[in-house]
């Protein structure tokens, strides 16, 4: 289930260059004005029958068409937090490249975090990992994960894995996508094995290098190809699923 309370975004790091939402080859290119959407109140909205529009128990992918912590949404975010708090029966999932804004974007009653929040910090290379992840680990939250996507190079995440629950890895999608090297993916997986963390290889990206060969992968097969490699770790007590 998706909830996009606002849309519009703009580049802040290398991972944004060919963004599948707002990059130069996307249908939304140039939509960098941040605006509220008509589904802003979706978590508390009711159907005509009076039932919740989002049924209890759902995972709600939140603000994937923008960044939940983008500065232009500071006023709206206060109300968004209130709606999240009103739905403790839902799990809200947030991905952000703006984790440095986390302390100034929290509700007054955040404390050590809401139970129904799962926050992911996106990193694409070692530079962003070394800047964002120490901040990420320093802030109070109940559940946190790293999203290495789009993966643009080899990453050493080992210094940061002690404080997170999970790692997701994915390649870059699009006509100008940069290569995702399977060796990088396997190295991150091994770091997760050593740290006892779960791991998910979400997608190969459009250009996937394996055994020294770069393949162009159909966008509709990138997720299934990653899954077929069988390297996901769902149980941190095992090396494979």
Summarize this entry quickly.
This protein is α/β, with parallel strands linked by helices and 241 residues long.
Strand content: 15-25%
- Which radius of gyration do the C-alpha atoms yield? 18 Å
Mean pLDDT: 95
- Could you tell me the number of beta strands? 12
The number of helices is 4
Main pleated-sheet profile: 7 strands, parallel
Question: Reading side by side through the largest sheet, how are the strands ordered?
Answer: 1-4-5-6-7-8-10
**Share of helix, binned:** 10-25%
Report, as a whole number of angstroms, the end-to-end distance.
25 Å
| Low-confidence residue ranges | none
So what's the overall shape?
globular
Sequence of secondary-structure elements: EEEEHEEHEEEHEEEH
**How many structural domains?**
2
Give me the secondary-structure category.
alpha/beta
Describe this structure in words.
It is a single chain. This protein is an alpha/beta fold. The protein is 20% helix and 21% strand. Strand 6, helix 2 and strand 7 (143-148) form a beta-alpha-beta unit. The relative contact order is 0.11. The mean pLDDT is 95.
């Amino acid at each position: 289930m998706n909830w996009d309370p606002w849309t519009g975004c703009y580049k802040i790091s290398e991972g944004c260059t060919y963004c599948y939402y707002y990059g130069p080859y996307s249908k939304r290119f140039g939509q960098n004005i941040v605006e509220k959407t008509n589904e802003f109140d979706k978590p508390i909205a009711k159907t005509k029958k009076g039932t919740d529009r989002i049924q209890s128990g759902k995972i709600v992918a939140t603000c994937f068409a923008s960044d939940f912590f983008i500065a232009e949404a500071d006023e709206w975010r206060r109300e968004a937090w209130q709606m999240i708090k009103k739905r403790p029966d839902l799990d809200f999932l947030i991905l952000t490249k703006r984790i440095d804004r986390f302390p100034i974007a929290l509700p007054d009653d955040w404390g050590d975090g809401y139970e129904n929040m799962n926050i992911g910090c996106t990193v694409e290379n070692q530079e962003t990992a070394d800047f964002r992840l120490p901040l990420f680990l320093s802030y109070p939250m109940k559940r946190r994960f790293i999203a290495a996507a789009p993966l643009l190079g080899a990453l050493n995440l080992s210094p940061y894995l002690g404080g997170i629950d999970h790692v997701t890895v994915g390649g870059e999608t699009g006509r100008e996508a940069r290569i995702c090297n399977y060796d990088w993916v396997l190295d991150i997986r091994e770091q997760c094995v050593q740290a006892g963390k779960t791991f998910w290889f979400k997608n190969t990206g459009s250009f996937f290098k394996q055994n020294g060969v770069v393949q162009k992968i159909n966008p509709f097969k990138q997720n299934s190809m990653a899954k077929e490699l069988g390297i996901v770790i769902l149980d941190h007590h095992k090396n494979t699923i």
